């Protein structure tokens, strides 16, 4: 089984460690700036609504979601969902995260190409993630190289989704910082705090992409497609 293969941890281990560090960092950074109230007094939902109005983006519902940092924008339903702490929070963290998600709605309204690509990849990625692991596991356990190769193809679709996600997330954060400063929602130290929160969040996407790419490299090696072998 690959999880007991030392090569797996040699190749993928650094990215898994980075993922753990990123998760700890984003939680700590979010909590740190959750204690910094905004001078504007706006909550996350109010900031998101103001950003959408200012850019003439209508038809987007803003809803409260469950969980911690479960915030996301659904382009199919045109719904911006904010976690409880972000929805009602009046802190630098809450407003920054809300603005980031509003940035995705702005991307959608402006036809931002990487977002269109990512949206198109969602069903392909979901199917790939669902089928890849069983195929890879069965193929490696029973030495069925053909199944491993098929699994690699499916897993590659999920990896592509992770890679395309990076520019989408970076651009949404850039838009968030620009609009928060441009509209005077945040200023000075508040903007600096938001940048730190969004950079910490971005690291989680970088870590996820790195882990996915390195896992793909491992499977390619085990499939003999990068000069390795299924030994």
Percentage of helical residues? over 70%
The beta-strand count equals 3
Whole-Å distance between the termini?
A: 11 Å
Shape: elongated
Low-confidence stretches: none
Order of helices and strands: HHEEEHHHHH
What is Rg? 20 Å
Structural class: mainly alpha
What structural keywords apply?
single chain, 231 residues, mainly alpha, three-stranded mixed sheet, 7 helices
Write a concise synopsis of the structure shown:
The chain has 231 residues and is mostly helical. It has 7 helices and 3 strands, in the order ααβββααααα. It has a 3-stranded mixed β-sheet.
Describe what this molecule looks like in 3D:
- The structure is a single chain.
- This protein is mainly alpha-helical and 231 residues long.
- The protein has one domain (2-222).
- Helices cover 71% and strands 5% of the residues.
- The N and C termini lie close together (11 Å).
Architecture blueprint of SSEs:
Elements: H1 6-34, H2 44-54, E1 61-64, E2 72-74, E3 79-82, H3 84-87, H4 92-110, H5 113-141, H6 145-182, H7 189-222
Parallel strand pairs: 1-3
Antiparallel strand pairs: 2-3
Helix pairs in contact: 1-7, 2-4, 4-6, 4-7, 5-6, 6-7
